[in-house]
Fold this protein.
Amino acid sequence: MGRRYVAGMKRVTLGSTGLRVSAQGLGCMGMSHGYGPADQAESLAVLRRALELGVTFWDTADYYANGANERLLATVLADHRAEVEIATKFGLVGGVTPSGGAQQVRGDPPYVRAACDASLRRLRVDVIDLYYQHRVDVSVPIEDTVGAMAELVDAGKVRHLGLSEATATELRRAHAVHPIAAVQSEWSLWSRDVEAAVVPACRELGVGFVPYSPLGRGFLTGQLTAIDSLPENDIRRAQPRLQAGVVDANRALVDVVRKVAAALGATPAQVALAWVHHRAAVWEVPVVPIPGTKRTRWLDQNVAAVELHLPADALERLDGLAERAAGDRHPQMGLTSAGDRP
Ligand SMILES: NC(=O)c1ccc[n+]([C@@H]2O[C@H](COP(=O)([O-])OP(=O)(O)OC[C@H]3O[C@@H](n4cnc5c(N)ncnc54)[C@H](OP(=O)(O)O)[C@@H]3O)[C@@H](O)[C@H]2O)c1
């Protein structure tokens, strides 16, 4: 089936390798993994609605529910492959630890090759549009990992390469082996540490940026207020910023987002997303956030943020929020680093 061009949704070139994607993507993780129970029929409805809206840049990973998330996407991709830019990731192995992270990180070349073949099988596609290393395996030189990823491009199994949670130094080393199309790391109103070194490196190298958790894992929307309200197996129970002792301070940040939203006739989620979109112009880097949802009503709301303009006074009120955020942004800060490795 050919690509349907949908009026309204802008498209963006991510990085210098020519990857064209919708200006806003769709984070699919929560449809299978990490964020409480999901209704498969509703998740499939979200994917189909995303096609209608032109939200065609879909984000998954082999790690999400041990491949089940890729299999879920495959059911829609089967009839719509040409319309979707499919991004998946390799490198996190084993179950989720009590602190919400993976048991192991693998970046050795034989593992990279095997992981890619397995993702292609699960997704039931011939080629992956954007293949990310989910976490840098510090026991393997990144040149070796990216060398193996580059061979996948040569073999026609992958179109573009990406890195997730890489440092600026790692990005430079990787990019010297093969052009990197995009870095995917956390970037939102309350998590801006990537702006210190990684985003400037993206600008310098011509690499796009894909902010994950642009809604602060739901917290910035004002809908998620306390970890007690989350199911036992929800990985956000390990979120440092939701813990007693800091959560009240962080709720005060959400109050600011709420007030800005009310003044604009928008929702807090739309303001959080519009802010991330706005950073593209500030940094002169292509920025394509991938808000996660398993509900069509949130998808419809989020898409509208592409067109939401934040006036100067709103930007001013939102500017200092990240500095006031209490608690680490991630339960496993040793694994993930926005600056240099410790
Ligand atoms: N590279 C990495 O290491 C990494 C790490 C984390 C995530 N990711 C990727 O990034 C994607 C997005 O990140 P994320 O899912 O962690 O966090 P997020 O996008 O910041 O937030 C997702 C949460 O917000 C809720 N939500 C979405 N839109 C909303 C709206 N308009 N109003 C109220 N609530 C709304 C969702 O609820 P429902 O679930 O009920 O729809 C979900 O609980 C993931 O799906 C995944 O693909 C990558």
